[in-house]
Amino acid sequence: MLSRAQDAAADATVGLGQRIIQLLWRRRDEAGRAELERVVGEAAVEQDEAYSTAVLSRLLRNALLDDPALREELAALLPAPAPGTVNVTASGERSIAAQHIGTAITGDGHTAPRP
């Protein structure tokens, strides 16, 4: 059952990625489409997942900066969070994330404050 859930999640992620690329494709001229095809093709065969992610993220970021209306179309593709649901994400060494934080101390050589 876990495998089926993971497969379904992967399929949903791939499907969303395909819809995003199709949206970018439709909004570009012939030269832009050639560039998009080249970048996505290179990312697809790259063995370094972090590199591919960075390249595709940069492509999407630049497209969003160049075309503010694209943000609205892209937002329409993303699933809406369930009411009352909060997503909090932290990434990177010593990152922290929370909906509400009282005291947060990161780094070396610190001691917690006394109440």
Q: What's the layout of helices and strands?
A:
Layout lengths: L1 H25 L3 H16 L3 H18 L1 H10 L38
Helix pairs in contact: 1-4, 2-3, 3-4
Summarize this structure briefly:
The chain has 115 residues and is an all-alpha fold.
| Category from helices, strands and their pairing | mainly alpha
| Helix-strand topology string | HHHH
Q: How many strand units?
A: 0
Give helix % range.
55-70%
Description of the molecule:
The chain is mainly α and about 120 residues long. The chain is built from 4 helices and no strands. The chain has helices spanning about 1-25, 30-45, 50-65, 70-75. α1 packs antiparallel against α4 and α3 (about 50-65) packs across α4 (about 70-75). The longest helix has 25 residues, at about 1-25. It is elongated, with a radius of gyration of 19 Å. It starts with a helix and ends in a 38-residue tail after the last helix. The mean pLDDT is about 80.
Descriptive tags:
115 residues, 0% strand, mainly alpha, elongated
